[in-house]
């Protein structure tokens, strides 16, 4: 294991990034702050009309994304979770959907809500099992618009380089998806800070 991976594992295992340790405006945000900075750059550059987040959890990331939309005065967030965690629903740019990110009902609601001409970015951060992430990739890749990003989170698990005991997860789903899909490229320029929880997970739609 090289120094970069050793530091990644050390940082991850401290759980400084986890619930109770990192927050956005007081709301727990289970993210590496370096990835959040990259999200800021992507949103400023691409100015998506809609950001779809699969996996609301405690709501910190959706609040962060909506705050960025406030700063550029553009965009809305739709966040999806199978559980209603009773998050205070106070930000006007956020819409909360309760249900599985891979259910036909949720997909139909997204299609009904988002005008066909609007630009869309998607972040996958729900169930991290390979089969679930692969199904999300198959269902959401067509919703992402050309020039925008499909971000697969937590590709670092299952030994990439953390949690080697996890089993097949987001990285393995991503690799299988890309083996048959040429609409996206891995934008490794988004890994410029060296530490990212989403290695190879910043997918830019080019077709």
From TrEMBL:
Instruction: Work out whether the entry's keyword set contains Transferase.
Output: yes
Q: Which GO terms describe its biological process?
A: DIM/DIP cell wall layer assembly; lipid biosynthetic process; methylation
Recorded source organism is Bacillus methanolicus (strain MGA3 / ATCC 53907)
Domain of life, per lineage: Bacteria
Which SUPFAM superfamilies does this chain map to? S-adenosyl-L-methionine-dependent methyltransferases
GO cellular component terms?
plasma membrane
Protein name, as recorded: Cephalosporin hydroxylase
UniProt xrefs under Pfam families:
RMNT_CmcI
What's a single GO MF annotation on this record?
methyltransferase activity
Q: What lineage, starting at the top, does this entry show?
A: Bacteria, Bacillati, Bacillota, Bacilli, Bacillales
Keyword entries, A-Z: Methyltransferase, Transferase
């Amino acid at each position: 294991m090289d120094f970069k991976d050793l530091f990644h594992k050390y940082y991850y295992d401290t759980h400084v990034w986890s619930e109770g340790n990192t927050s956005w405006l007081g709301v727990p945000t289970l993210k590496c702050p370096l990835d959040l900075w990259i999200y800021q750059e992507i949103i400023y550059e691409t100015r998506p009309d809609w950001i779809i987040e699969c996996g609301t959890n405690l709501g910190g990331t959706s609040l962060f994304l909506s705050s960025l939309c406030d700063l550029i005065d553009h965009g809305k967030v739709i966040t999806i979770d199978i559980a209603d965690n009773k998050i205070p629903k106070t930000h006007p740019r956020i819409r909360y959907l309760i249900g599985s990110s891979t259910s036909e009902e949720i997909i139909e609601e997204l299609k009904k809500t988002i005008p066909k001409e609007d630009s869309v970015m998607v972040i996958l951060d729900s169930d991290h099992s390979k089969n679930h992430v692969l199904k999300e990739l198959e269902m959401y890749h067509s919703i992402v618009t050309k020039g925008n990003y499909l971000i697969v989170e937590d590709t670092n698990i299952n030994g990439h380089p953390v949690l080697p005991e996890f089993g097949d997860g987001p990285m393995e789903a991503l690799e299988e998806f890309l083996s048959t899909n040429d609409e996206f490229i891995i934008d490794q320029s988004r890994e410029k800070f060296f530490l990212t929880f989403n290695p190879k997970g910043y997918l830019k739609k080019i077709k």
